[in-house]
Design the sequence.
């Protein structure tokens, strides 16, 4: 069975770029009847907060994704410790003591000698006496993974290509000789991303990993770490194009205006957010889909393009409008009733074409229930008084507006905007809005008369 994972760090709120990764994984699993794992990468105990994890779970569920499994890395340290010991015993995890300043000087020396600026594996040359001396000096080691880019002599690296068939980018190759041995454990004993992730992907049975294309190089390293840990099967990887803001900048978790929480609070529909996050940067038209099931009907990994995709909030406004304008009364009914709107289908059909967010329906409900304030010239006010005398009798229905305005036009000679605008202002107090043919039946004859007075 296919099994995917979305692995945010609960150190802040997720934004629409993170949601894009979650949605790609969820849609991939949905299409294959697979499982979705929400894995919180919370090994950074100082910055990780449960409140952020709770918020991320709420955001994921709001988008329509229900995790089949929720995992916290902070509860799995014993597994990571065992994996680190396994790599040490195999001679693949070695201690290093360089400070950042020393590493920078080493990098510059290599560049000056026209050598690639990668770590020179000095840590492998340390003797027991060296380790004892560093310990006495109070230096704690960080631990690097020895990449398999040599034929027995780690100080004579050779080109070693690691390749995979990427779900979204096609065939990919990374030369391990171009990389420094990655640090898996910091000097303070905390784990960086790579080792815990590899252990979890192996032990949780993750079969497919979809993430941003800034992880391509990391994938080559992770494949080798997983092999070193004895993984029987390796995940299939896919790297999607990078999502940028409309200026071409990167999206940050701290850019609150684009967080999923803020978009939800602004009133956007989950279908609009999910549709834009999924469909921009693909070969598909960016049309709104009300549910993940509808998105799943059109999405496959091969539709994702290789160039960066740009998120423009105005696109979200347009998608939201389209979703609301197409929303059936059956879908809207419980939400209308929750807001105390009781006129039902006639009201919804009258106003939905003028909504940007669902909350806007309350404005139109207040207008219909009144009172309203209409501002117009004395001349227009006099015209409205004439129109009042021509108002048809009950029943008020969809035909009333046409019958009435024809009579007013014939009697006054007014037409077009000069005829319709004063009546709209008198009846709604607004210069724009729903068709008055649909509004009149909601007002009723008596209320209409009162507003024309």
Sequence:
């Amino acid at each position: 069975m296919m099994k995917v994972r979305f692995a945010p760090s609960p150190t802040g709120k997720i934004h629409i770029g993170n949601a894009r990764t979650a949605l790609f994984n969820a849609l991939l699993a949905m299409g294959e009847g697979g499982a979705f794992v929400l894995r919180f990468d919370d090994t950074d105990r100082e910055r990780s907060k449960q409140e952020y994890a709770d918020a991320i779970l709420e955001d994921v569920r709001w988008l329509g994704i229900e995790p089949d499994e929720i995992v916290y890395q902070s509860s799995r340290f014993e597994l990571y410790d065992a994996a680190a010991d396994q790599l040490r015993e195999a001679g693949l995890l070695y201690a290093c003591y360089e400070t950042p300043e020393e590493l920078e000087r080493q990098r510059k020396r290599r560049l000056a000698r026209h050598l690639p600026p990668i770590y020179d594996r000095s840590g492998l040359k340390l003797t027991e006496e060296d380790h004892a001396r560093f310990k006495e000096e109070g230096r704690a080691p960080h631990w690097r993974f020895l990449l398999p880019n040599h034929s027995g002599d780690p100080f004579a690296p050779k080109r070693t290509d690691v390749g995979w068939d990427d779900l979204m980018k096609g065939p990919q190759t990374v030369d391990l000789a171009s990389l420094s041995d990655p640090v898996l454990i910091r000097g303070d004993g905390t784990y960086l991303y790579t080792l815990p992730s590899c252990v979890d992907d192996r032990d949780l049975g993750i079969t497919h990993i979809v993430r941003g294309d800034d992880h391509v190089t990391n994938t080559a390293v992770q494949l080798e770490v997983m092999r070193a840990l004895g993984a029987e099967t390796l995940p299939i990887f896919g790297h999607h194009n990078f999502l940028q803001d409309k200026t071409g900048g990167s999206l940050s978790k701290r850019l609150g205006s684009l967080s999923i929480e803020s978009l939800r609070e602004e009133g956007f529909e989950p279908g609009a957010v999910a549709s834009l996050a999924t469909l921009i940067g693909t070969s598909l038209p960016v049309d709104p889909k009300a549910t993940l099931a509808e998105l799943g009907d059109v999405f496959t990994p091969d539709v994702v393009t290789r160039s960066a995709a740009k998120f423009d909030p105005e696109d979200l406004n347009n998608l939201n409008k389209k979703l609301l304008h197409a929303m059936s009364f059956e879908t809207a009914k419980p939400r209308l009733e929750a807001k105390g709107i009781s006129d039902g289908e006639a009201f919804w059909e009258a106003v939905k074409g003028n909504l940007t967010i669902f909350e806007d329906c309350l404005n139109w409900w207040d207008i219909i229930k009144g009172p309203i304030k209409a501002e117009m010239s004395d001349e227009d006010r006099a015209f409205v008084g004439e129109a009042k005398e021509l108002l048809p009798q009950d029943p008020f229905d969809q035909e009333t507006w046409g019958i009435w305005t024809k009579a007013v036009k014939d009697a006054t000679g007014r037409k077009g905007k000069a005829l319709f605008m004063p009546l709209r202002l008198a009846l709604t107090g607004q210069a724009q809005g729903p068709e008055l043919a649909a509004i009149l039946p909601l007002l009723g004859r008596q209320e209409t008369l009162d507003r024309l007075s």
User: Anything to note?
Assistant: The mean pLDDT is 94. The CA atoms of residues 300 and 365 lie 42 Å apart. The radius of gyration is 31 Å. The longest strand covers residues 35-40.
